[in-house]
Amino acid sequence: MNILGINAYHGDSAAALVQDGKLVAAVEEERFNRIKHWAGFPAESIRFCLEQGNIRVEDLDHIAVSYNPKANLSKRVQFVLTKRPSFGAVWDRLRRQRTVLGIKEKLAEACGCGASDIKAPVHQVEHHLSHIACGFLDSPYQEAAVLSVDGMGDFVSTMTAKGKGTDWTVLDRVYYPHSLGFLYNALTIYLGFPNYGDEYKVMGLAPYGEPEYLDLFRKIVYPRGDGFELNLDYFTHHKEGIRMSWESGNPKVEAFHSDKLVKELGPVRERNEEVTKKHENISRSLQAVTEEIIFHLLNRLHEKAPSDNVCITGGCAMNSVANGKITLNTPFKNAYIPVGAADNGTSFGAAFYVWNRILHKERCFRLDHGYWGDETSDSDCHEAIEAAGVPGRTFEDRDELLEYVVDALCAGKVVGWFQGKMEFGARALGNRSLLADPRRTDMRDIINLKIKFREKFRPFAPSILADHVKDYFELDDESPFMEKVFKIREEKREEIPAVTHVDGTGRLQSVTKESNPLYYDLIDRFRKRTGVPIILNTSLNENEPIVRTPAEAISCFLRTAMDIIVLGNNVIDRSVPDFPETTEKSEARAS
Length: 591
Known about the structure:
This protein is α+β, with helices and mostly antiparallel strands and 591 residues long. The chain folds into three domains: 2-129 and 346-367, Nucleotidyltransferase, domain 5; 151-337, 2-Layer Sandwich (Nucleotidyltransferase, domain 5), CATH 3.30.420.40; 373-573, Alpha-Beta Complex (DHBP synthase). Helices cover 34% and strands 21% of the residues. A hairpin with a 6-residue loop joins strand 1 and strand 2. Helix 2 packs across helix 5 (103-111), helix 6 (127-137) packs across helix 15 and helix 17 (398-410) crosses helix 20. It is globular, with a radius of gyration of 23 Å. The model is unreliable at 585-591 (pLDDT under 50).
Protein backbone atom coordinates (compact mmCIF):
# COMPACT_ATOMS: atom_id res chain seq x y z
CA MET A 1 0.00 0.00 0.00
CA ASN A 2 1.60 3.26 -1.15
CA ILE A 3 0.32 6.61 0.11
CA LEU A 4 1.87 9.88 -1.02
CA GLY A 5 1.38 12.84 1.30
CA ILE A 6 1.76 16.39 0.04
CA ASN A 7 1.92 19.85 1.58
CA ALA A 8 1.60 22.14 -1.45
CA TYR A 9 1.00 25.85 -2.10
CA HIS A 10 1.77 26.61 1.53
CA GLY A 11 4.93 27.52 3.39
CA ASP A 12 7.41 24.64 3.84
CA SER A 13 6.08 22.68 0.88
CA ALA A 14 6.97 19.01 1.33
CA ALA A 15 6.23 15.44 0.34
CA ALA A 16 6.27 12.12 2.18
CA LEU A 17 5.74 8.48 1.30
CA VAL A 18 4.05 5.97 3.61
CA GLN A 19 4.30 2.31 2.59
CA ASP A 20 2.25 -0.31 4.44
CA GLY A 21 1.75 2.09 7.34
CA LYS A 22 5.39 3.12 7.74
CA LEU A 23 7.11 6.33 6.74
CA VAL A 24 9.92 5.64 4.27
CA ALA A 25 10.79 9.15 3.02
CA ALA A 26 10.01 12.79 3.74
CA VAL A 27 11.66 15.96 2.49
CA GLU A 28 10.98 19.66 1.99
CA GLU A 29 11.15 21.22 -1.47
CA GLU A 30 13.43 24.00 -0.21
CA ARG A 31 16.27 21.49 0.08
CA PHE A 32 16.23 21.02 -3.69
CA ASN A 33 15.56 24.51 -5.03
CA ARG A 34 17.45 26.32 -2.21
CA ILE A 35 14.61 28.79 -1.53
CA LYS A 36 13.72 28.88 2.17
CA HIS A 37 10.16 27.94 3.09
CA TRP A 38 9.24 27.30 -0.57
CA ALA A 39 5.47 27.41 -1.00
CA GLY A 40 4.87 25.99 -4.47
CA PHE A 41 4.29 22.43 -5.65
CA PRO A 42 6.90 19.98 -4.24
CA ALA A 43 7.81 18.27 -7.50
CA GLU A 44 11.40 17.36 -6.60
CA SER A 45 10.34 16.13 -3.18
CA ILE A 46 7.71 13.89 -4.74
CA ARG A 47 10.20 12.42 -7.20
CA PHE A 48 12.64 11.77 -4.35
CA CYS A 49 10.01 10.00 -2.24
CA LEU A 50 8.91 7.78 -5.12
CA GLU A 51 12.53 6.88 -5.81
CA GLN A 52 13.10 6.01 -2.16
CA GLY A 53 10.04 3.78 -2.24
CA ASN A 54 11.20 2.20 -5.53
CA ILE A 55 7.84 2.93 -7.16
CA ARG A 56 6.39 5.01 -9.97
CA VAL A 57 3.60 7.52 -9.57
CA GLU A 58 1.30 5.03 -11.31
CA ASP A 59 1.91 2.62 -8.40
CA LEU A 60 0.38 4.94 -5.83
CA ASP A 61 -2.76 3.69 -4.10
CA HIS A 62 -3.71 6.98 -2.46
CA ILE A 63 -2.69 10.64 -2.56
CA ALA A 64 -3.28 12.81 0.49
CA VAL A 65 -3.18 16.62 0.41
CA SER A 66 -3.12 18.54 3.71
CA TYR A 67 -5.67 21.09 2.60
CA ASN A 68 -9.43 21.02 2.09
CA PRO A 69 -11.10 24.11 0.58
CA LYS A 70 -14.52 22.75 1.55
CA ALA A 71 -13.74 22.41 5.26
CA ASN A 72 -15.57 24.79 7.61
CA LEU A 73 -17.45 26.23 4.64
CA SER A 74 -20.39 27.49 6.70
CA LYS A 75 -18.03 29.42 8.98
CA ARG A 76 -16.34 30.98 5.96
CA VAL A 77 -19.67 32.09 4.47
CA GLN A 78 -20.84 33.43 7.82
CA PHE A 79 -17.66 35.48 8.20
CA VAL A 80 -17.97 37.01 4.74
CA LEU A 81 -21.63 37.91 5.27
CA THR A 82 -21.19 39.41 8.75
CA LYS A 83 -17.70 40.97 8.62
CA ARG A 84 -17.74 42.03 4.97
CA PRO A 85 -13.98 41.86 4.30
CA SER A 86 -12.59 43.65 1.27
CA PHE A 87 -13.15 42.09 -2.16
CA GLY A 88 -9.38 41.88 -2.61
CA ALA A 89 -9.00 39.77 0.52
CA VAL A 90 -11.74 37.35 -0.54
CA TRP A 91 -10.40 37.08 -4.10
CA ASP A 92 -6.84 36.46 -2.93
CA ARG A 93 -7.98 33.61 -0.69
CA LEU A 94 -10.13 32.05 -3.42
CA ARG A 95 -7.25 32.30 -5.91
CA ARG A 96 -4.89 30.44 -3.59
CA GLN A 97 -7.51 27.81 -2.76
CA ARG A 98 -8.06 26.98 -6.44
CA THR A 99 -4.44 25.92 -6.84
CA VAL A 100 -5.06 22.74 -4.87
CA LEU A 101 -7.69 21.52 -7.31
CA GLY A 102 -5.18 20.59 -10.02
CA ILE A 103 -3.07 18.24 -7.90
CA LYS A 104 -3.24 15.27 -10.28
CA GLU A 105 -2.29 17.42 -13.23
CA LYS A 106 0.69 18.89 -11.37
CA LEU A 107 1.69 15.44 -10.15
CA ALA A 108 1.57 14.04 -13.67
CA GLU A 109 3.64 16.95 -14.94
CA ALA A 110 6.24 16.38 -12.21
CA CYS A 111 6.50 12.68 -12.95
CA GLY A 112 6.33 12.76 -16.74
CA CYS A 113 3.06 10.94 -17.29
CA GLY A 114 -0.54 11.72 -18.11
CA ALA A 115 -3.05 12.62 -15.40
CA SER A 116 -5.21 9.70 -16.55
CA ASP A 117 -2.31 7.34 -15.75
CA ILE A 118 -2.63 8.20 -12.06
CA LYS A 119 -5.39 5.99 -10.70
CA ALA A 120 -4.93 6.81 -7.01
CA PRO A 121 -7.75 8.91 -5.50
CA VAL A 122 -6.85 12.30 -4.04
CA HIS A 123 -7.92 12.85 -0.44
CA GLN A 124 -8.20 16.45 0.70
CA VAL A 125 -7.52 16.29 4.44
CA GLU A 126 -8.40 19.34 6.52
CA HIS A 127 -5.25 21.21 7.53
CA HIS A 128 -5.49 20.77 11.31
CA LEU A 129 -6.63 17.15 10.99
CA SER A 130 -3.36 16.59 9.12
CA HIS A 131 -1.51 18.27 11.97
CA ILE A 132 -3.29 16.13 14.56
CA ALA A 133 -2.54 12.97 12.58
CA CYS A 134 1.14 13.94 12.44
CA GLY A 135 1.24 14.70 16.16
CA PHE A 136 -0.82 11.82 17.56
CA LEU A 137 -0.76 8.86 15.15
CA ASP A 138 3.06 8.88 15.00
CA SER A 139 3.55 9.49 18.72
CA PRO A 140 4.52 6.92 21.37
CA TYR A 141 1.07 7.23 23.00
CA GLN A 142 -1.99 5.08 22.46
CA GLU A 143 -4.07 7.71 24.22
CA ALA A 144 -3.41 11.42 24.57
CA ALA A 145 -4.86 14.88 24.45
CA VAL A 146 -3.89 16.74 21.28
CA LEU A 147 -3.41 20.45 20.57
CA SER A 148 -2.83 21.82 17.07
CA VAL A 149 -2.13 25.56 16.97
CA ASP A 150 -0.67 27.67 14.16
CA GLY A 151 -1.37 30.65 11.93
CA MET A 152 -4.34 29.49 9.88
CA GLY A 153 -5.37 26.51 7.83
CA ASP A 154 -8.78 25.89 6.29
CA PHE A 155 -10.22 28.79 8.31
CA VAL A 156 -9.07 27.33 11.65
CA SER A 157 -6.10 28.41 13.76
CA THR A 158 -6.45 26.01 16.69
CA MET A 159 -7.94 22.56 17.18
CA THR A 160 -8.03 20.31 20.23
CA ALA A 161 -8.84 16.63 20.34
CA LYS A 162 -8.95 13.54 22.53
CA GLY A 163 -7.12 10.67 20.89
CA LYS A 164 -7.19 6.93 21.45
CA GLY A 165 -5.74 4.21 19.24
CA THR A 166 -6.26 5.30 15.64
CA ASP A 167 -9.19 7.58 16.39
CA TRP A 168 -9.85 10.92 17.99
CA THR A 169 -12.69 13.24 18.84
CA VAL A 170 -12.32 16.91 17.95
CA LEU A 171 -13.21 18.98 21.00
CA ASP A 172 -12.79 22.64 20.05
CA ARG A 173 -11.78 24.91 17.18
CA VAL A 174 -10.70 28.54 17.08
CA TYR A 175 -11.72 30.09 13.79
CA TYR A 176 -10.45 32.92 11.62
CA PRO A 177 -9.59 35.73 12.31
CA HIS A 178 -8.40 34.75 15.80
CA SER A 179 -4.94 33.20 15.69
CA LEU A 180 -1.99 32.91 18.02
CA GLY A 181 0.27 32.33 15.03
CA PHE A 182 -1.00 35.53 13.40
CA LEU A 183 -0.26 37.44 16.61
CA TYR A 184 3.35 36.24 16.69
CA ASN A 185 3.74 36.78 12.94
CA ALA A 186 2.37 40.33 13.05
CA LEU A 187 4.71 41.33 15.87
CA THR A 188 7.66 39.60 14.21
CA ILE A 189 7.16 41.79 11.15
CA TYR A 190 6.62 44.86 13.36
CA LEU A 191 9.94 44.13 15.08
CA GLY A 192 11.79 44.29 11.77
CA PHE A 193 12.10 40.59 10.96
CA PRO A 194 10.05 40.42 7.75
CA ASN A 195 11.02 37.06 6.28
CA TYR A 196 8.61 34.16 6.36
CA GLY A 197 9.52 32.00 9.37
CA ASP A 198 11.43 34.71 11.28
CA GLU A 199 9.46 34.13 14.48
CA TYR A 200 12.32 32.10 15.95
CA LYS A 201 14.43 35.28 15.96
CA VAL A 202 11.91 36.96 18.26
CA MET A 203 11.91 33.88 20.50
CA GLY A 204 15.71 34.11 20.72
CA LEU A 205 15.59 37.86 21.43
CA ALA A 206 12.94 37.64 24.14
CA PRO A 207 15.18 36.51 27.05
CA TYR A 208 17.22 39.71 26.74
CA GLY A 209 14.19 41.82 27.68
CA GLU A 210 11.68 42.37 30.45
CA PRO A 211 7.87 41.90 30.13
CA GLU A 212 7.31 45.66 30.18
CA TYR A 213 4.35 45.49 27.79
CA LEU A 214 2.62 42.43 29.21
CA ASP A 215 -0.51 44.34 30.26
CA LEU A 216 -0.88 45.72 26.74
CA PHE A 217 -0.45 42.29 25.17
CA ARG A 218 -3.06 40.89 27.52
CA LYS A 219 -5.45 43.39 25.93
CA ILE A 220 -4.38 42.30 22.45
CA VAL A 221 -4.96 38.58 23.06
CA TYR A 222 -6.90 37.01 25.89
CA PRO A 223 -8.53 33.71 26.91
CA ARG A 224 -12.14 33.19 25.88
CA GLY A 225 -13.80 30.02 27.14
CA ASP A 226 -11.70 27.05 26.09
CA GLY A 227 -9.99 29.13 23.41
CA PHE A 228 -8.87 32.73 22.97
CA GLU A 229 -9.58 35.87 20.97
CA LEU A 230 -7.57 38.65 19.39
CA ASN A 231 -8.51 42.28 19.92
CA LEU A 232 -8.97 43.01 16.24
CA ASP A 233 -8.47 46.75 16.75
CA TYR A 234 -4.74 45.98 16.61
CA PHE A 235 -4.86 44.16 13.25
CA THR A 236 -6.11 44.58 9.70
CA HIS A 237 -6.30 41.00 8.40
CA HIS A 238 -9.99 40.54 9.23
CA LYS A 239 -10.86 43.47 6.95
CA GLU A 240 -8.16 43.52 4.32
CA GLY A 241 -6.79 39.99 4.48
CA ILE A 242 -3.10 39.18 4.76
CA ARG A 243 -1.21 40.09 1.63
CA MET A 244 0.85 37.01 0.91
CA SER A 245 2.88 36.69 -2.25
CA TRP A 246 4.23 33.36 -3.47
CA GLU A 247 6.42 34.68 -6.26
CA SER A 248 8.42 31.74 -7.60
CA GLY A 249 7.23 29.86 -4.52
CA ASN A 250 9.10 32.17 -2.14
CA PRO A 251 6.55 33.09 0.56
CA LYS A 252 6.37 36.71 1.69
CA VAL A 253 3.92 38.26 4.11
CA GLU A 254 3.14 41.96 4.27
CA ALA A 255 2.55 43.75 7.58
CA PHE A 256 -0.98 43.44 8.95
CA HIS A 257 -0.87 45.28 12.27
CA SER A 258 -3.04 48.39 12.61
CA ASP A 259 -2.19 52.00 13.36
CA LYS A 260 -3.44 51.41 16.89
CA LEU A 261 -0.57 49.00 17.56
CA VAL A 262 1.95 51.59 16.33
CA LYS A 263 0.29 54.28 18.42
CA GLU A 264 0.72 52.22 21.60
CA LEU A 265 4.10 50.57 20.90
CA GLY A 266 5.80 53.21 18.77
CA PRO A 267 7.28 53.14 15.26
CA VAL A 268 7.94 49.91 13.39
CA ARG A 269 11.56 48.80 13.51
CA GLU A 270 13.16 48.78 10.08
CA ARG A 271 15.01 45.56 9.22
CA ASN A 272 18.51 47.11 9.37
CA GLU A 273 17.79 49.31 12.37
CA GLU A 274 19.51 48.68 15.69
CA VAL A 275 17.75 46.32 18.09
CA THR A 276 17.10 48.31 21.26
CA LYS A 277 16.05 47.47 24.78
CA LYS A 278 12.51 48.42 23.82
CA HIS A 279 12.48 45.79 21.08
CA GLU A 280 13.81 43.24 23.54
CA ASN A 281 11.04 44.11 26.00
CA ILE A 282 8.36 43.84 23.32
CA SER A 283 9.72 40.42 22.35
CA ARG A 284 9.71 39.26 25.97
CA SER A 285 6.16 40.48 26.50
CA LEU A 286 4.96 38.77 23.32
CA GLN A 287 6.60 35.49 24.33
CA ALA A 288 5.12 35.70 27.82
CA VAL A 289 1.53 36.24 26.65
CA THR A 290 1.94 33.51 24.02
CA GLU A 291 2.91 31.09 26.76
CA GLU A 292 -0.07 32.18 28.86
CA ILE A 293 -2.48 31.42 26.03
CA ILE A 294 -0.85 28.06 25.24
CA PHE A 295 -1.03 27.01 28.90
CA HIS A 296 -4.65 28.17 29.08
CA LEU A 297 -5.50 26.03 26.06
CA LEU A 298 -3.69 23.04 27.56
CA ASN A 299 -5.24 23.36 31.00
CA ARG A 300 -8.74 23.59 29.52
CA LEU A 301 -7.91 20.68 27.22
CA HIS A 302 -6.86 18.56 30.18
CA GLU A 303 -10.23 19.16 31.81
CA LYS A 304 -11.98 17.70 28.76
CA ALA A 305 -9.38 15.06 27.92
CA PRO A 306 -7.66 14.09 31.18
CA SER A 307 -4.45 12.25 30.42
CA ASP A 308 -0.79 12.20 31.38
CA ASN A 309 0.07 12.63 27.70
CA VAL A 310 -0.29 15.54 25.31
CA CYS A 311 0.74 15.85 21.66
CA ILE A 312 1.34 19.36 20.36
CA THR A 313 1.66 20.26 16.71
CA GLY A 314 1.20 23.15 14.29
CA GLY A 315 3.50 26.10 13.67
CA CYS A 316 3.20 27.37 17.25
CA ALA A 317 4.55 24.02 18.43
CA MET A 318 7.89 25.26 17.09
CA ASN A 319 7.94 27.58 20.11
CA SER A 320 10.44 25.45 22.00
CA VAL A 321 10.54 27.86 24.95
CA ALA A 322 6.85 27.28 25.65
CA ASN A 323 7.21 23.53 25.02
CA GLY A 324 9.84 23.22 27.73
CA LYS A 325 7.46 24.65 30.33
CA ILE A 326 4.41 22.49 29.60
CA THR A 327 4.93 19.94 32.37
CA LEU A 328 5.59 22.78 34.84
CA ASN A 329 2.45 24.76 34.00
CA THR A 330 -0.16 22.11 33.15
CA PRO A 331 -1.25 18.74 34.58
CA PHE A 332 0.33 16.88 31.66
CA LYS A 333 3.35 14.76 32.55
CA ASN A 334 4.52 13.90 29.03
CA ALA A 335 4.60 16.17 25.98
CA TYR A 336 5.36 14.95 22.45
CA ILE A 337 6.16 17.39 19.65
CA PRO A 338 6.93 15.66 16.33
CA VAL A 339 9.73 16.51 13.96
CA GLY A 340 8.05 18.65 11.31
CA ALA A 341 5.48 20.03 13.73
CA ALA A 342 5.00 22.95 11.33
CA ASP A 343 3.26 22.68 7.97
CA ASN A 344 6.00 20.49 6.46
CA GLY A 345 4.86 17.64 8.69
CA THR A 346 1.31 17.80 7.36
CA SER A 347 2.66 15.93 4.34
CA PHE A 348 3.04 12.70 6.30
CA GLY A 349 0.23 13.68 8.67
CA ALA A 350 -2.21 13.61 5.75
CA ALA A 351 -0.79 10.28 4.57
CA PHE A 352 -1.23 8.68 7.99
CA TYR A 353 -4.74 10.14 8.21
CA VAL A 354 -5.59 8.12 5.12
CA TRP A 355 -3.87 4.97 6.44
CA ASN A 356 -5.38 5.02 9.92
CA ARG A 357 -8.63 6.99 9.65
CA ILE A 358 -9.89 6.35 6.10
CA LEU A 359 -8.51 2.84 5.53
CA HIS A 360 -8.91 1.89 9.22
CA LYS A 361 -5.49 0.25 9.45
CA GLU A 362 -3.74 -0.36 12.76
CA ARG A 363 -0.86 1.79 13.94
CA CYS A 364 2.50 0.20 13.14
CA PHE A 365 4.87 3.16 13.12
CA ARG A 366 6.42 5.54 15.64
CA LEU A 367 8.22 8.70 14.57
CA ASP A 368 11.30 8.40 16.79
CA HIS A 369 13.96 9.98 14.56
CA GLY A 370 14.14 12.71 11.94
CA TYR A 371 16.41 11.24 9.24
CA TRP A 372 14.17 10.81 6.19
CA GLY A 373 16.03 12.62 3.40
CA ASP A 374 18.97 12.18 1.03
CA GLU A 375 21.88 9.88 1.84
CA THR A 376 25.25 10.30 0.15
CA SER A 377 27.92 7.60 0.04
CA ASP A 378 31.52 8.09 1.15
CA SER A 379 32.63 7.71 -2.45
CA ASP A 380 30.20 10.42 -3.60
CA CYS A 381 31.60 12.71 -0.93
CA HIS A 382 35.14 11.95 -2.10
CA GLU A 383 34.18 12.75 -5.70
CA ALA A 384 32.65 16.06 -4.61
CA ILE A 385 35.89 17.02 -2.86
CA GLU A 386 37.89 16.21 -5.98
CA ALA A 387 35.46 18.22 -8.12
CA ALA A 388 35.89 21.22 -5.81
CA GLY A 389 39.65 21.11 -6.34
CA VAL A 390 40.56 21.21 -2.68
CA PRO A 391 42.76 18.76 -0.76
CA GLY A 392 40.97 16.11 1.25
CA ARG A 393 41.89 13.23 3.47
CA THR A 394 40.09 9.89 3.70
CA PHE A 395 39.94 7.97 7.00
CA GLU A 396 39.47 4.23 6.65
CA ASP A 397 39.24 3.80 10.43
CA ARG A 398 36.20 5.35 12.09
CA ASP A 399 37.85 5.68 15.49
CA GLU A 400 40.70 7.61 13.91
CA LEU A 401 38.20 9.94 12.24
CA LEU A 402 36.38 10.59 15.52
CA GLU A 403 39.67 11.32 17.29
CA TYR A 404 40.60 13.78 14.57
CA VAL A 405 37.27 15.61 14.95
CA VAL A 406 37.50 15.70 18.74
CA ASP A 407 41.03 17.09 18.45
CA ALA A 408 39.67 19.86 16.23
CA LEU A 409 36.78 20.64 18.59
CA CYS A 410 39.07 20.81 21.61
CA ALA A 411 41.37 23.14 19.66
CA GLY A 412 38.49 25.59 19.28
CA LYS A 413 37.76 24.80 15.64
CA VAL A 414 34.32 24.88 14.01
CA VAL A 415 33.53 21.60 12.28
CA GLY A 416 31.08 20.94 9.47
CA TRP A 417 29.54 17.49 9.90
CA PHE A 418 27.86 15.89 6.87
CA GLN A 419 26.73 12.31 7.47
CA GLY A 420 24.03 9.78 6.67
CA LYS A 421 20.47 10.74 5.80
CA MET A 422 19.42 14.38 5.79
CA GLU A 423 17.13 15.55 8.55
CA PHE A 424 13.48 16.48 7.97
CA GLY A 425 12.34 19.74 9.49
CA ALA A 426 13.88 23.04 10.46
CA ARG A 427 16.62 21.77 12.76
CA ALA A 428 19.84 19.93 12.10
CA LEU A 429 20.00 16.83 14.29
CA GLY A 430 23.60 15.72 13.80
CA ASN A 431 23.73 14.76 10.13
CA ARG A 432 23.87 18.21 8.47
CA SER A 433 25.38 20.15 11.36
CA LEU A 434 27.99 22.68 12.41
CA LEU A 435 29.71 21.50 15.58
CA ALA A 436 31.85 23.26 18.17
CA ASP A 437 33.12 23.05 21.75
CA PRO A 438 30.36 24.26 24.12
CA ARG A 439 32.93 25.20 26.78
CA ARG A 440 34.30 28.20 24.86
CA THR A 441 32.90 31.59 25.85
CA ASP A 442 33.69 33.07 22.44
CA MET A 443 32.20 30.33 20.28
CA ARG A 444 28.71 31.77 19.89
CA ASP A 445 30.04 35.05 18.52
CA ILE A 446 32.50 33.26 16.25
CA ILE A 447 29.78 31.18 14.59
CA ASN A 448 27.15 33.93 14.43
CA LEU A 449 29.42 36.60 13.01
CA LYS A 450 31.97 34.66 10.92
CA ILE A 451 30.07 31.62 9.67
CA LYS A 452 26.31 32.09 9.93
CA PHE A 453 26.49 35.87 9.33
CA ARG A 454 23.46 36.53 11.50
CA GLU A 455 22.30 38.40 14.59
CA LYS A 456 24.62 37.94 17.55
CA PHE A 457 21.74 37.32 19.98
CA ARG A 458 20.84 34.00 18.36
CA PRO A 459 21.52 30.97 20.62
CA PHE A 460 22.89 27.55 19.75
CA ALA A 461 21.70 24.13 20.80
CA PRO A 462 23.45 21.60 23.02
CA SER A 463 23.40 18.06 21.64
CA ILE A 464 23.64 15.94 24.78
CA LEU A 465 23.85 12.22 25.43
CA ALA A 466 20.35 11.26 26.57
CA ASP A 467 21.63 9.53 29.71
CA HIS A 468 23.20 12.79 30.90
CA VAL A 469 20.26 15.18 30.48
CA LYS A 470 19.50 15.02 34.20
CA ASP A 471 23.07 16.03 35.04
CA TYR A 472 22.90 19.30 33.12
CA PHE A 473 19.23 20.30 32.96
CA GLU A 474 16.66 20.94 35.66
CA LEU A 475 14.15 18.72 33.85
CA ASP A 476 15.04 15.17 32.80
CA ASP A 477 13.07 14.67 29.61
CA GLU A 478 13.49 13.48 26.04
CA SER A 479 13.98 16.11 23.35
CA PRO A 480 15.14 14.19 20.27
CA PHE A 481 14.04 16.84 17.77
CA MET A 482 15.47 19.89 19.55
CA GLU A 483 11.88 20.86 20.33
CA LYS A 484 12.13 21.91 24.00
CA VAL A 485 14.04 24.54 25.95
CA PHE A 486 14.94 23.71 29.54
CA LYS A 487 16.75 25.52 32.31
CA ILE A 488 20.38 24.47 32.59
CA ARG A 489 21.42 23.67 36.12
CA GLU A 490 22.96 26.79 37.61
CA GLU A 491 26.18 25.06 38.60
CA LYS A 492 26.68 23.85 35.00
CA ARG A 493 26.16 27.12 33.12
CA GLU A 494 29.75 28.33 33.37
CA GLU A 495 30.92 24.94 32.11
CA ILE A 496 28.99 25.22 28.80
CA PRO A 497 28.66 28.98 28.08
CA ALA A 498 28.44 28.62 24.29
CA VAL A 499 25.11 26.76 24.54
CA THR A 500 23.72 28.61 27.57
CA HIS A 501 21.36 31.40 26.57
CA VAL A 502 21.23 34.68 28.45
CA ASP A 503 18.39 33.39 30.65
CA GLY A 504 20.26 30.22 31.63
CA THR A 505 18.40 27.94 29.23
CA GLY A 506 19.31 25.61 26.38
CA ARG A 507 17.31 24.13 23.49
CA LEU A 508 18.63 20.64 23.84
CA GLN A 509 18.75 17.68 21.51
CA SER A 510 18.91 14.44 23.48
CA VAL A 511 20.89 11.89 21.46
CA THR A 512 20.62 8.12 21.77
CA LYS A 513 22.79 5.44 20.23
CA GLU A 514 19.70 3.93 18.62
CA SER A 515 18.70 7.11 16.79
CA ASN A 516 22.15 8.15 15.51
CA PRO A 517 25.03 5.79 16.41
CA LEU A 518 27.82 7.81 14.77
CA TYR A 519 26.80 11.15 16.25
CA TYR A 520 26.33 9.51 19.66
CA ASP A 521 29.83 8.04 19.48
CA LEU A 522 31.31 11.43 18.54
CA ILE A 523 29.69 13.13 21.54
CA ASP A 524 30.71 10.25 23.78
CA ARG A 525 34.30 10.50 22.51
CA PHE A 526 34.22 14.22 23.34
CA ARG A 527 32.85 13.33 26.80
CA LYS A 528 35.68 10.89 27.47
CA ARG A 529 38.22 13.55 26.50
CA THR A 530 36.67 16.54 28.31
CA GLY A 531 34.21 15.21 30.85
CA VAL A 532 31.39 17.12 29.07
CA PRO A 533 28.74 14.97 27.28
CA ILE A 534 27.66 17.87 25.06
CA ILE A 535 28.57 19.35 21.68
CA LEU A 536 27.34 22.65 20.29
CA ASN A 537 25.12 21.92 17.29
CA THR A 538 23.66 24.26 14.69
CA SER A 539 22.57 23.72 11.10
CA LEU A 540 25.08 23.35 8.29
CA ASN A 541 24.08 26.34 6.17
CA GLU A 542 24.58 30.08 5.86
CA ASN A 543 21.36 32.07 5.38
CA GLU A 544 19.97 29.33 3.13
CA PRO A 545 18.15 26.02 3.60
CA ILE A 546 20.17 23.27 5.29
CA VAL A 547 22.59 21.78 2.78
CA ARG A 548 21.47 18.65 0.96
CA THR A 549 24.46 17.56 -1.16
CA PRO A 550 28.22 17.30 -0.55
CA ALA A 551 28.78 20.04 -3.14
CA GLU A 552 26.49 22.41 -1.23
CA ALA A 553 28.28 21.56 2.02
CA ILE A 554 31.69 22.26 0.46
CA SER A 555 30.41 25.55 -0.99
CA CYS A 556 29.21 26.60 2.47
CA PHE A 557 32.61 25.65 3.90
CA LEU A 558 34.54 27.65 1.31
CA ARG A 559 32.57 30.87 1.68
CA THR A 560 32.66 30.97 5.48
CA ALA A 561 35.29 30.77 8.20
CA MET A 562 34.56 27.13 8.99
CA ASP A 563 37.79 25.33 9.94
CA ILE A 564 37.18 21.78 8.77
CA ILE A 565 34.36 19.85 7.22
CA VAL A 566 33.76 16.11 7.48
CA LEU A 567 31.85 14.46 4.63
CA GLY A 568 31.32 10.79 5.39
CA ASN A 569 34.82 9.48 6.10
CA ASN A 570 36.46 12.35 4.21
CA VAL A 571 37.87 15.53 5.74
CA ILE A 572 38.69 18.93 4.28
CA ASP A 573 40.94 20.89 6.64
CA ARG A 574 41.66 24.53 5.94
CA SER A 575 44.82 24.42 8.06
CA VAL A 576 46.76 21.97 5.88
CA PRO A 577 49.79 23.58 4.18
CA ASP A 578 48.62 23.05 0.60
CA PHE A 579 45.08 24.41 1.13
CA PRO A 580 44.42 27.05 -1.57
CA GLU A 581 43.15 30.55 -0.96
CA THR A 582 39.47 30.71 -1.88
CA THR A 583 37.79 33.62 -3.55
CA GLU A 584 34.20 32.47 -3.18
CA LYS A 585 32.21 34.99 -1.18
CA SER A 586 28.75 34.78 0.27
CA GLU A 587 26.06 36.99 -1.19
CA ALA A 588 23.62 36.28 1.62
CA ARG A 589 23.93 38.07 4.91
CA ALA A 590 21.66 38.42 7.92
CA SER A 591 19.54 41.50 8.07
